[in-house]
Amino acid sequence: MRRREAVQAVADFFKEGYIVACNGFISRELFNVKDASRNFYVLGSMGLPSAIGLGLSLARPDKRIIVITGDGNQLMSLGTLATVGKTSPKNFVEVLLDNGCYETTGGQETSSSTTKFHDLARSAGFRHSEYVDSLDGLVAALEQHLNAEGPIFIHAKIEKEKACSPRTQMDPCKIKDRFMNALIES
Amino acid sequence: MDSKEFCRLLRDNGFDFFCGVPCSVLGQIIEYLSHNDDFQYVPATREDEALGIAVGAYMGGKKPVVLMQNSGLGNSIDALTSLVLLYKFPILLLVSWRGYEENDFPEHSLMGRYMQDFLRTMKIPTIVLSRDRLPRQIAESARIMKELETPVALVLKRGVLE
Q1: Which of A83, A173, A183 lies at the smallest CB-CB distance from B59?
Q2: What confidence tens digit (pLDDT) does each residue in A154-169 have?
Q3: Is the CB of B45 less than 8 angstroms away from the CB of A175?
Q4: Residue A104 DSSP SS3
Q5: pTM to 2 decimals?
Q6: Is A58–B87 a contact, with Cβ atoms under 8 angstroms apart?
Q7: Structural domain spans, chain A
Q8: CA of A74 vs chain B CAs: smallest distance (Å)
Q9: Are A132 and A10 in contact (CB under 8 A)?
């Protein structure tokens, strides 16, 4: 499964959901595949996308919140899995795209090959957690969990690939304002 | 003013979501927030995570406060520069001042000395809380945050709250 396909699948699936996309290639891919006011692009603050999604989930329990992050990003903040497990928001979904490397900075290896993220999430208290390694598997997992009670964790293995969409061309404050307006108006 | 009254003062100024990592100076505040249904307190594993949670809560319509020891300010620099300040999130930081006037354990001495420099360098408006002026200082923080779309740091020394 390619990164772009995975991002597209998640964006297509949660049409009513609010997506927090992590810094680096994942935000860039989402911006180019399917830019929407319901997307919050995290440009910096590596390690914090799941925390941002958690805060949103707690403040807006009436909305589905989806975090798309990467293996390197999650490894920087494994503790946040515990905070999600402890607070256990039913509307929280995290999809971790695992290519085993820091692709945005040139493909340096992460510790993902020896880390079972889906087991960590389950141990930390996520209600559902699973591993998928194909686009069909990801779509099936999304279908299964679309309306299920969270927190939900999907660990999706994707290919390494250097190519990526261009940078997210949007002012940070505009990203914020647009996202907040979309939440208020919904 | 005691910790309970201080929490109520924050709530009266619109702050309705609390998140952070403990410090003994903040202990009674966190104790009260955690065991009172009128307040929502989320225990974070790190101070930068607390800032991330606060950012999400803010976008969801809350007015968040992040509580931390000043040692946690060190953990927070990237979260502040590349998220909170970059996107202009008005979040209130309640930071305990360990190492104030070198009168603390050795691990607190350098951050105790440099904390205000870090905050000044990041251009985060900083108010050192004083027991005689608390209501005015909290109201002033709320005003600055709203007008300038900026985080504000409230610095709390041991002994300011009863």
Answers
A1: A183
A2: 999 999 998 888 898 8
A3: no
A4: helix
A5: 0.97
A6: no
A7: 3-185
A8: 12
A9: no
Cβ distance A83 to B86 less than 8 Å, yes or no, reads no
- Say if A170 is an interface residue toward chain B (CB within 8 Å): no
Test B53 with A52 for CB contact under 8 angstroms.
yes
Under CATH, which architecture does the A3-185 domain have? Answer: 3-Layer(aba) Sandwich (3.40)
> In Å, how far are A13, A31, A46, A158, B39 from A164, measured between CA atoms?
22, 11, 18, 14, 44
Judge: A58–B60 Cβ closer than 8 Å, yes or no. yes
Locate the domains of chain B by residue range: 3-156
**ipTM, interface predicted TM-score of the complex:** 0.97
Q: At what angle do helices A79-87 and B47-59 cross, to 10 degrees?
A: 50
Residue A141: partners with Cβ closer than 8 Å, 6 or more residues away:
A130, A132, A154, A156
Chain B interface includes A171 (CB < 8 A) = no
Mean pLDDT along residues B21-47: 96
Distance CA B17, CA A54 (A): 13
Q: How far is it, in rounded angstroms, from Cα B112 to Cα B106?
A: 10
| Residues forming a β-bridge with B95 | B68, B155
Q: Quick: pLDDT tens for B50-70.
A: 999 999 999 999 999 999 999
B39 touches chain A (CB under 8 A): no
How crowded is the C-beta side of B124, counted as CA atoms within 13 Å?
A: 30
- Fold for the domain defined by B3-156: Rossmann fold (3.40.50)
Identify any residues that bridge with A39 across adjacent strands, giving them in sequence order: A19
Mutation target vs B (from A40, A56, A63, A170; most B CBs, 10 A cutoff) = A56
The minimum CA-CA distance between B101 and chain A, rounded to whole Å, is 32
Chain A closest CA to B48's CA: distance in Å?
8
Minimal C-alpha gap between A168 and chain B (Å): 14
- DSSP conformation letters of A108-128: EE-SGGG--HHHHHHHHT-SE
